[in-house]
Each structure stands twice: as structure tokens, then as C-alpha cells.
Amino acid sequence: MMRALISTWLALLVACGAPEREPGSSTISVDDERGRTVRLARPATRIVSLLASHTETLVALGVGDRIVGRDTYSTGSPQIEALPDLGGLEPNVEAVAALEPDLVIAAEYGTQAGVLEQAGLTVWAGSAQRYDELFEVLDAIARLVGRAGEGERIARELRERIARVAARAQGAPRLRVYFEVDPTPYSVGPRSFIGEMIARAGGATIAPEPLGEFPRLALEEIVVRDPEVMIGLSLDEARGRPGWSSVTAVRRGRVRALSDAERDVIVRAGTRIDEGLQVLLEIIHPELAP
Description:
By secondary structure, this protein is an alpha/beta fold. The protein has two domains: 28-146, Nitrogenase molybdenum iron protein domain (Rossmann fold, 3-Layer(aba) Sandwich), CATH 3.40.50.1980; 171-288, 3-Layer(aba) Sandwich (Rossmann fold), CATH 3.40.50. The protein contains 13 helices and ten strands. The chain has helices spanning 8-15, 52-60, 78-81, 93-98, 112-118, 131-144, 148-167, 193-200, 219-225, 235-239, 248-251, 260-267, 273-284, and strands at 28-31, 37-40, 47-49, 67-70, 103-106, 123-125, 175-179, 203-205, 229-231, 255-256. The protein has a four-stranded parallel beta sheet, sandwiched between helices. A four-stranded parallel beta sheet has the order 8-7-9-10. The chain is globular. Keywords: Signal. Residues 46-288 form the Fe/B12 periplasmic-binding domain. InterPro entries: ABC_Transporter_SBP (IPR050902), ABC_transptr_periplasmic_BD (IPR002491), Vit_B12_bind_prot (IPR054828). This is Vitamin B12 ABC transporter, B12-binding component BtuF. One of its GO terms (biological process) is cellular response to iron ion.
């Protein structure tokens, strides 16, 4: 997507609580994942966030106090949970409009962005499906709220933290991993951000790349691919599925359910993905965990 720099004198404004502005520009223009250009006369100050990873990014950028409404899944702090809950994949459009946001940030998939725009709202729609897109989305949101410089700092430090965790897995045997997104069963492809985190943790997702970032797999295909580690379900659940008792991960007891907190840092494509990588490393290669 986009990268931006910020001049030194703007840092003084930030210290005084004022939003950063792009030098030499009176309008903020940022493309979203639909190919649409979102234009703001000034940094957004009344924001509705309809994706949990976006909410975490806003908080990390230091503008959590500008959020006036959230989606159902944006949880994790009393400040955020106290905000109006506007629903999940199909938010309450009237409730969103009633909050009079100057910006709504949402996912690009589904119909929510278009419906909100039809109600006269300004919408930036996007989400990260792949690793590099994490940083593109961070940059876009940072520019929309006038914190481009802060976004660059967060991105740089996040890359450094990821590299430090990944370094511990270098040279480790690459284990076959089945990551369960849900029991249907949806999993993760190697090009998804979760698949790339699994690779950095010394694993390799069993889902074939041609099936996409988040494919649905046949139960028998999982048996054939014989993962050595299973993540996202319990050992009892795995044993209860037809044919899975013969899978290496099940026979060796290498099946690990996730707590809500662990799942959040893995599946939310946001600024805490390094914490998710640490969880994956501890599961895939517990011998390498500090």
C-alpha cells in the first residue's frame, strides 16, 4: 500500500497532544484494499473500528481515545470494552451513523463497507491476509490518524521483535503443522500471515499454497498430510475425528488447544503478532522457548 515520512517539527505538536500532519499537504489521501482512495481534510478524531486488529493498531498508535465505537470482537481492555458494541460482520449501520464518526475502518471483505458508504459514512476498508500486509495496513491507519511517524516506529520495532523470536528457530527441524482456524475445518496456507509466522517458528503448514491463505481442508486430507503438530484444538477433539488417531501429532500427544488470549495474538493481524509468534514457537519447538 503506502509509506510516509514525518518532519521533526511535527513531533513537538504530538508532544502537546495535537495530531501529526503530513508536511506540505492539507488533505490526507490513503488507498484502501478495494482500490478506493479515502480523503480526509484532517486526521480522523472520531473513529469507528470494525475489526479487532484495527482497534489494537489504533491503541498502539496512541489514539485509542479517538475510538467512539467498536465491533463485537474488539476486546481486551476496559477502555475499549466500554465503547458501544456495533456488531460483528454485519454492524448496525444506524448505530454507527448515530456516533457521527469522521472515519470508519473496516474489513474489505463482505458488504459492510459498501453499506456504510451508502449511509454517507467515510470508510477505509482493508485487512492483512499476508505478512507484508500487516505493515501496509499499519501504515495506512497511521496516516489516516495523523501518526505516520509513530506508525513507522511501531513497524520497525515490531519487525525487530519478530526477528529476535524467529532467530531462535533457525536451524531447527521444520515440523509439519496443522493450524485449525475453525472445526469445519478451515486452516492456514503458507502465504497467510499465520502460515508465515508458523514458518518463522520452525514449522510448515500442511495446507497447499494453491488453496489460498485460509483454505478449507477435507478431514481425510489432513490425515494423509500427517501433521507432526496440531494447533487450535484439543487432543480429545482430534482423537474423536475419524482416522485422526493414526496422525503423528495425535499419537505423540502434540495437539495443543489455544486460550482466548493466545488465539487473539495469533489470528489478529495487528501490532501484537510478535506475541503470537512466541506462542507458536513454544508450541512447535518447546525446546527452543526461553
